[in-house]
């Protein structure tokens, strides 16, 4: 079975321009894939905004960004490239970043030559500082030497045009990063037209493929970029911005009309959500593996004649947590906690989750109260 990094390499070997669309969570990634886009971008801009409502200035840690990329990646079959900002520090941090993202199964990463902490390239009126060419080229070499999977894609992002340092410096940096082993070079621009990027492509004399992000020059046509020899285009944050507009319009209508049927033209039916979160698959699992008439200890106890002893709790049961860990219990309303760190990649920060084991004790009733109620042959309240 081909890995996602292998699938990404196969896509990049095909002729033509490859589109990649930015996701901010698992559901947006599913929608991007359903729309037919072949590669998904885990955007630090979009993840920072959607997950924490904070600006894209390195406020989220590497582990927070990795967890967001994992949720995105797990939701789709398409390969995911993660925006890892500046590698979250110096070259030592870059080594760990590559290790963690590759181990997690992300198909590739994109790293920029901004200093740490970074400032989003789109924010206007901010002073820009870049690493020296030598330091960032060292980061690229370290990333290349660290990866174990040769298909894991490393993209080096050049911010010289964003910083206003000119085409000569942009070319110097792009050459150095390509020479350091980057698989692709992302040339970023804040120009309102594609002229600057098209000029760069006319001057680019290396076989290393070029990636662009036309957020600030949105009128450029796909065919124009493809004709210039660009290999990948990232439509990075439009899905998030469309979602915000949709939520604003829905909330404005609800605030004005004060009734839910006024929202019908603004929202999808529930069945559309069910489709994307896998409700049918959940039902199929139940149909395949649950007994036709499972019964329950609670139902059996409800039928116990007055004055009789309630049925004992069921025998030990193995209960699967959401990530496959097994817990065994025969005690009423026992809650079993698993941290899941064993089956998550090191550095990932998934919090522990509690699994409540079904028993003859109603939810929210302590075992002591249940026993007292049983002795009195009264229902638990």
Write up what this structure looks like:
The protein is of the alpha/beta class and 381 residues long. 40% of the residues lie in helices and 14% in strands. The strands form 3 sheets. Strands 1-2-3-4-5-6-7-8 form an 8-stranded parallel beta barrel, surrounded by 9 helices. A two-stranded antiparallel sheet has the order 9-10. Strands 11-12 form a two-stranded antiparallel ribbon. Strand 9 and strand 10 (326-329) form a beta hairpin. The model is unreliable at 316-365 (pLDDT under 50).
Q: N-to-C SSE series?
A: HEHEHHEHEHEHEHEHEHHHHEEEEH
Terminal CA distance reads: 54 Å
Radius of gyration: 27 Å
Q: What is the domain total for the residues?
A: 2
Structure class: alpha/beta
The CATH superfamily name of the largest domain is Phosphoenolpyruvate-binding domains
Fill in the keyword field for this structure.
381 residues; alpha/beta; 2 domains; two-stranded antiparallel ribbon
In short:
By secondary structure, the protein is of the alpha/beta class. It contains 14 helices and 12 strands.
């Amino acid at each position: 079975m081909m890995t996602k990094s292998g699938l990404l390499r196969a896509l990049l070997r095909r002729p033509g321009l490859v589109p990649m669309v930015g996701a901010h969570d698992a559901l947006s990634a599913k929608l991007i894939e359903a729309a037919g886009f072949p590669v998904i971008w885990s955007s630090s801009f979009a993840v920072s905004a959607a997950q924490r409502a904070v600006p894209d200035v390195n406020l989220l840690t590497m582990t927070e960004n990795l967890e967001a990329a994992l949720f995105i990646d797990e939701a789709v079959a398409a390969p995911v490239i993660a925006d890892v900002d500046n590698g979250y520090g110096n070259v030592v941090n870059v080594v760990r970043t590559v290790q963690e993202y590759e181990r997690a199964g992300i198909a590739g990463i994109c790293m920029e030559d901004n200093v740490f902490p970074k400032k989003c390239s789109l924010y206007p009126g901010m002073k820009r500082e870049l690493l020296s060419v030598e330091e960032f080229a060292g980061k690229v070499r370290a990333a290349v030497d660290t990866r174990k999977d040769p298909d894991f894609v490393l993209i080096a992002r050049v911010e010289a045009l964003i910083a206003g340092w000119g085409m000569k410096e942009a070319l110097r940096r792009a050459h150095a990063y390509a020479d350091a082993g980057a698989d692709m070079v992302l040339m970023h621009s804040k120009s309102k037209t594609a002229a600057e990027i098209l000029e760069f492509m006319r001057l680019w004399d290396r076989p290393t493929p070029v990636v662009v992000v036309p957020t600030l020059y949105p009128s450029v046509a796909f065919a124009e970029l493809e004709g210039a020899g660009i290999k990948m285009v990232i439509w990075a944050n439009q899905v998030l911005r469309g979602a915000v507009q949709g939520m604003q319009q829905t909330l404005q209508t609800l605030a004005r009309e004060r009734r839910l049927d006024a929202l019908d033209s603004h929202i999808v039916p529930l069945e559309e959500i069910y489709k994307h979160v896998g409700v049918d698959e959940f039902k199929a699992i139940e149909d395949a593996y649950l007994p036709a008439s499972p019964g329950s200890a609670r139902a059996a106890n409800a039928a116990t004649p007055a004055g009789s002893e309630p049925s004992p709790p069921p025998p030990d049961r193995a209960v699967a947590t959401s990530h496959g860990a097994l817990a065994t219990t025969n005690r009423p309303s026992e809650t079993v906690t698993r941290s899941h760190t064993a089956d998550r990649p090191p550095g990932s920060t998934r919090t522990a989750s509690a699994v409540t084991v079904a028993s003859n004790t109603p939810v929210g009733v302590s075992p002591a109260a249940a026993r007292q109620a049983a002795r009195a042959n009264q229902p638990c309240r």
